[in-house]
Amino acid sequence: MQPKDQVFSDKIKDVADFHFGEKVATVFDDMVGRSVPFYAEMQRMIGEMAGDFAVNGTNLYDLGCSTGTTLLHLDPLVADHVRFIGVDNSEEMLAKCRAKLKEHNFSRDHELRLADLNHGIQIENASMVLMVLTLQFIRPLHRDKLIGSILQGMNQNGALILVEKLVGEDSLFNRLFIKYYYDLKKRNGYSELEIAQKREALENVLVPYKLMENREMLLRAGFRYCDVFFKWYNFSGIIAVK
Prior knowledge:
Blueprint: H1 22-35, H2 39-53, E1 59-63, H3 69-74, E2 83-88, H4 91-103, E3 110-114, E4 126-132, H5 140-152, E5 154-167, H6 171-187, H7 192-202, E6 209-210, H8 211-221, E7 225-232, E8 235-241
Parallel strand pairs: 1-2, 1-4, 2-3, 4-5, 5-6
Antiparallel strand pairs: 5-8, 7-8
């Protein structure tokens, strides 16, 4: 049984910026399952694509690997001699990831690294790189450079999968999509107080782009192909190929 996300259930006098510390890491699996629309289906789709793009003798990077859900999901779907490298900037998340991999008897060759992607990343021999709800937490000032360094370390025909929360293309749809998103969170058991306090905590931490801005950033970096594989109101999944 996953611990239930109650991080914002009590009234907080001064809401601090959202932080992926021990409190969040403990309940993260429940949090993401209840907060991200079609999260399980996106994981399934990522696994499907990874089966086609991850190549034996290469590395698969999960940037922002959090508690290791994606690594575990991909393990039976990807060729045996693909090395998994999980990267996160939270010690607490990586500790949870290690424990979860051990609990599931994860035996694939892998490495977990502590790193702040705002300071860049060295990618080597990569046939696939994943950024699942990660780039939105990188300061916009650093995003183009980060995507460029990812591309540089990828092999030809390697794939980058980017899942992001979005800003609507215009204010009308943006307002509606946010309303529909909060309705989903209510259906999944979050109160108005929890939604409001988390929104305040994320305000200066999660900076979403428009869908077209993300696509243009990938093409500007030098990816040859780019397409949307998932879209739900203010969430999207993009695959780009070098």
